[in-house]
TrEMBL record:
Pfam families: DUF3553
Organism: Sulfitobacter noctilucicola
Taxonomic superkingdom: Bacteria
InterPro entries assigned to the protein according to its UniProt record, in alphabetical order: DUF3553
Region described as Disordered: 1-23
Name of the protein described by the UniProt record: DUF3553 domain-containing protein
């Protein structure tokens, strides 16, 4: 399987494709296919990059 979020780096803003109510999140870390994101309306969440592809946000 591919790491769907390999290009994400700390500080980037993202959205979860299945959880729009979480709002925009900021990547905290991206280590070995586990991306930690601090979402505005959900808090800190660890995402499995082999199952969920986060959507980068460039204009928020």
């Amino acid at each position: 399987m591919d790491d769907l979020n390999a290009m994400l780096t700390p500080g980037m803003h993202v959205r979860h494709p299945d959880k729009p109510d979480w709002g925009v999140g900021q990547v905290q870390s991206n280590i070995s296919g586990r991306v930690t994101v601090n979402f505005r309306d959900e808090g800190k969440v660890v995402i499995d990059s082999f199952h969920i592809g986060l959507v980068p946000v460039f204009d928020d």
